[in-house]
Amino acid sequence: MAKIALLERKCSGCGQCRSVCPFGAVDWKDNRPELNAACRVCGLCVKNCPEQALIRLETRESSVEKNKWKGILVFAEVSGGRLHPVGLELIGKALELAEVCHDPVLAVLVGSGVRDYAEELRHWGVSQVYVYDDPARPGSGRTRTQPAWKNVSGTRAPALCWWAPQASAVPWRRGCPPGSIPG
Ligand code: SF4
Ligand code: SF4
Questions:
Q1: Residue 134 in contact with residue 164, Cβ under 8 Å?
Q2: Mean pLDDT, range 42-64, rounded to an integer
């Protein structure tokens, strides 16, 4: 099943998505797009959004041990002494999706002194937080986050993974095979 999701913090309200949609599926509310039931998930708006504020979400379709894949895994980045807002927004979207598919929302935290943020994530509704805290190694660069991500996705086998490092473009994976690394 696929759907288009809006990352509201990234949206500038330019209206480009509304202009390009061939199906009249983009309504306008509070200066932000709102997709309606006419959406065919063609992806045209995603391609044309200058802010990369729209993402296409797809749950994994596999007949192989489908029941073992459970949970929506989100990378929660700590930046400038706080949880990065894009990560929090992804968690918000994950919670919306979780209401539909009844999967738990999981998060990975990597860095130095990040342990306390786990409680904040729990406060936002994350069921389980995997903390990789190493006070001796500040920062959360790729060499640290990839092994942590690989470890969690390999042992926990989530059905869906979201990853938004440094609030840049939002790569996403269609399903998350155990051991796979985002990027
Ligand atoms: S094209 Fe992107 S930035 Fe512009 S209104 Fe649509 S979602 Fe927002
Ligand atoms: S995915 Fe296609 S149909 Fe859906 S809102 Fe975007 S452009 Fe319109």
A1: no
A2: 81
Per-residue tokens: 149: 């991500």
Q: Which ligand is nearest to the CA of 53?
A: 1
In 3D, which of 129, 147, 128 has the Cα closest to residue 137?
147
pLDDT greater at residue 159 or residue 126: 126
Final residue of a domain: which of 58, 82, 103? 58
Ligand 2: centre distance to CA 24 (Å): 8
Of 94, 83, 101, 63, the residue nearest 162 (C-alpha) = 94
Q: How far is the CA of 14 from the centre of ligand 1 (A)?
A: 5
CATH of the domain at 54: 3.30.70.20
For residue 135 and ligand 1, the question of a CB distance below 6 A is answered with no
HSE toward the beta carbon, residue 37, CA cutoff 13 A:
0
User: pLDDT at residue 45 above 90?
Assistant: yes
Predicted TM-score of the model (pTM): 0.54
Tens-digit pLDDT profile for residues 68-102: 678 888 888 787 888 888 888 888 888 888 887 78
Q: How confident is the model at residue 147 (pLDDT cuts 50, 70, 90)?
A: confident
Q: Whose CA is nearest to atom 4 of ligand 2?
A: 39
Q: Quick check: is 181 in a domain?
A: no
